[in-house]
Amino acid sequence: MFTGPGKRDEELAHAVEAGVRVVTVESPGELRRLARIAQARGRRQAVLLRAAVSEAARLERVRLVGDDGAGKFGMDAADLRGAAAWASASPWLELLGLHAFGASNLLDAGALAAHVESTVSAGRDLAAAAGFPLRLVDVGGGLGIPYEPHEEPLDLRVLGIRLAALAGRLASDPATAGSRVLFEPGRFLVGPAGAYVTRVVDRKRVGEDHVVILDGGIHHLLRPALVGQEHRVRALTGAAAAPGSANAQRFPVTVAGPLCSGLDVFAQAALMALPDPGDLVAVLDVGAYGATESMPFFLSHPLPPEIALRGGEAWVARPRIEPETWLDWQTEGPASR
Ligand SMILES: Cc1ncc(COP(=O)(O)O)c(C=O)c1O
User: Fold this and answer.
1) Residue 289, ligand 1, Cβ within 6 A
2) Are 222 and 209 in contact (CB under 8 A)?
3) 208-232, pLDDT tens digit by residue?
4) I need a labelling partner for 246 at 20 to 30 A (CA). Which of 61, 103, 161, 213 fits?
5) Fold entry, domain 194-321
């Protein structure tokens, strides 16, 4: 599948030539470009149309957008109807259905199921209005993972019951008997598999507060600053990680990085035994939206190596990269006279 706003012509052409199963189209203009590209290659390309979803609703309940505007993704209701009619009439496009990524990191199975149900019903309405058979409804990602200590995992049993009931309703209705519902899970599959390991450089009291400064920060792991959510932090070495440390006294600790930015904080009041300078600590759940979502060049610290683990065996998947590497890419420009 090929999804995302701003697909360039070369990318669409590659997708068509490679026989990508379905292209999710984000605008009427993109739909026309894709049709031209498919026609030029004598191919018929399967497509989904992406519905705009209220940005405000992305973190909570989900609502498809009518005419009230939204973020940058997808089409509003009027454009969706026009695009569906146009795609249905095009010999170069095969319209399969609707895509709506309207939920992000949801831990509430009921809210996620409600997003799926409302997207399916919007897909059904669109198919009925434009007169095409609804074959696919893509509900995007959104299966959440617990980041903070008080959060509970998504209840898959509740989600399963709701989805099974929905599947039953789809199967018993001739208009949707051939329809499939698709998730695109991202963080749920890989988020808990990654940890960001960094070393304590300094520890101090500032007034009443305990502050721990690390040698890594938001340049390697931007997410806490980007979405305002703290990750769990664990000591890996030293007295704070020693057997029996579970009984050690815990303090609220500000855990922060070395950058000259007040945003460079992983946790404001992580409750933990105090780690010492030299200890390693792990910031958990960074297998998704970790290094690749960050801003590695900010303040020219080294890029961290990535260490992979499989079956108890560890290897360097990507080496540490020193700032000299990208500073050496810079050119000096024409010599000044
Ligand atoms: C189109 C699309 N599908 C799926 C995902 C994965 O989402 P999640 O990590 O919430 O499961 C993303 C993430 O941005 C996305 O843009």
Assistant:
1) no
2) no
3) 999 999 999 999 999 999 998 899 9
4) 213
5) Lyase, Ornithine Decarboxylase; Chain A, domain 1 (2.40.37)
